[in-house]
Amino acid sequence: MVRSTLSAIESHTRQIETTETVRYAVIGLGWWATEMALPALTAADNATVTTLVAEENINTDTQELARRYGADTTMTSEQFLSLETDTGEQHNLIGSTSSSSGNESDKPANNNIIDTDLYDAVYIATPNAAHLPYARIAAAQEKAVLCEKPIEANVERGNKLRTHCQQANVPLMIAYRVQMHPLVRYARELIDQGDIGDVTVIQSHHTQPLLKMHPDTNQWRLDPAQTGYGTAIMDLGVYTINTARFLLDADPIAVSAVTLADTPGFEAVPDDRAAAILSFPDGVQLVANTTQRGQHGSGMKIIGTQGSLDLQGIFRGQCSLTVAAGDIEGTFEHTQFTLHDEMTAVFEYFADCLLTDKSVSPDGAEAIADLSVMRAMYADGDGNGDGSANHAVSYPEFV
């Protein structure tokens, strides 16, 4: 039965009421962390920020952030990475050719004493190809890891990141905030209950004007050494892929993709825009379009044999859900649950799992499955616009 009121729709909720809190170190202080994640984290009831890790020098902006959000400690990435103990593991950006000789003199100098007892978990919000070294050192400290999407720049590095956390027996969660939205979770419930019959097609789009938002063409999203396989799919399409997998509780088995990049500023990456068809088991198809050169917009329509669900604004933090299931039609507006609320729900849920010793979801295996799909999409698109045949998706054995 389709619910008649929004009050019954829940996001991830805490499992216990407690006065305990999880202390976060926030690594990477770019736009997303400073304007979205930090305000959301400070709004969490069971979490707090105690440590800020800046990728460059500690400046007045960093000090102001620490004062604003009550962080007790600031450090540079060099200081954090100086906690490295195993120089045998390559942890440079994916485009680097340097390697460690293993000599004692090659180890990073540790001229500052870092108090790792000041935080219980790290939240990594750096460029994609920097996730691995931070997660590896956090795992060595036995700190729980909450990592932004995608988990890393490619499947191999994502696997390494997950392995480090597994070997250290520390929780690893990927901050797929869209899964936290009550309307997205409600849509999954309606699909599971069969309210729209058998799903046949999903139509989705996710667009933004990247160079209007961030005019610098030297930014990391346009640098293959930092972003990974590409930019439109890796930065935006990942939301579509993960959300479709979440709603269907299934993985794509094949993809057909077209990737294009013929605009100044995007010369180094294969896609300023992309179009794809993802084939799921039982014949379900996801038709997805994404671009870094369009106005802000996002939507996902799930079409079934007996009805449909239309999620507008789904990836932008203010989502509405229109339900057409048989004789039942209606629209749920849930704009009061914003992007900040999605991120607060991520921080609260992860903290609650740590406090109650519960397994987290979405975890590293789920994130690597997304990367596996994207790898197949880029292989099929190949930057030439002639992706005409399905390309099989190969998943690691643990997925």
From TrEMBL:
Residues 22-176 form the Gfo/Idh/MocA-like oxidoreductase N-terminal domain. Keywords: Oxidoreductase. Residues 84-109 are annotated as: Disordered. The keyword Oxidoreductase applies. It comes from the Archaea. GO terms for molecular function: nucleotide binding; oxidoreductase activity. InterPro entries: EF_Hand_1_Ca_BS, Gfo/Idh/MocA-like_OxRdtase_N, Gfo/Idh/MocA_oxidrdct_glycsds, GFO_IDH_MocA-like_dom, NAD(P)-bd_dom_sf. It comes from Haloquadratum walsbyi (strain DSM 16854 / JCM 12705 / C23). Residues 184-309 form the GFO/IDH/MocA-like oxidoreductase domain. This is GFO family oxidoreductase.
